[in-house]
């Protein structure tokens, strides 16, 4: 994959994070995940999330990392 392709995929990550958050405020979403609201805000504004955040999000929200990071497959993981 080219650098441009990677950049294109990364630009869509904030939208997928907001989709997982849904109607919850960033504050409530952060509280549900056990992270700081400022981190959620930064990630939704384009900062690349830390691995720990991504693993926590995938686990607590039952979200597929393939979907979250690459936009492939279904949002929710099969249990």
Summary tags:
79 residues; mainly alpha; 434 Repressor (Amino-terminal Domain)
Number of domains: 1
Q: What is the number of beta strands?
A: 0
Query: Which CATH class is shown?
Result: Mainly Alpha
* SSE order: HHHHH
**What is the tally of helical segments?**
5
Instruction: List segments where confidence is low: pLDDT < 50 over at least 5 consecutive residues.
Output: none
Spatial shape: globular
CATH topology group = 434 Repressor (Amino-terminal Domain)
Assign the CATH architecture.
Orthogonal Bundle
Broad structural category: mainly alpha
Radius of gyration: 12 Å
> CA-to-CA gap between the ends?
30 Å
Q: Portion of residues in helices? A: 55-70%
| Main pleated-sheet profile | none
> Which percent range describes the beta-strand content?
under 5%
CATH evolutionary superfamily = lambda repressor-like DNA-binding domains
What does this structure look like?
The protein has a single domain (3-70), classed as lambda repressor-like DNA-binding domains (434 Repressor (Amino-terminal Domain), Orthogonal Bundle), CATH 1.10.260. The longest helix is centred in the first third of the chain and has 19 residues, at 3-21. Helix 2 (26-33) crosses helix 3 (37-44). The chain contains five helices and no strands. The radius of gyration is 12 Å and the shape is globular. With 79 residues, it is mainly alpha-helical. The mean pLDDT is 93. It is 66% helix and 0% strand.
């Amino acid at each position: 994959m080219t650098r441009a392709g990677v950049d294109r995929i990364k630009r869509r990550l904030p939208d997928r994070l907001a989709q997982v958050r849904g109607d919850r405020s960033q504050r409530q979403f952060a509280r549900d995940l056990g992270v700081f609201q400022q981190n959620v805000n930064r990630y939704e504004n384009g900062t690349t999330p830390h691995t720990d955040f991504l693993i926590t999000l995938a686990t607590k929200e039952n979200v597929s990392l393939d979907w979250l990071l690459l936009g492939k497959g279904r949002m929710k993981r099969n249990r």
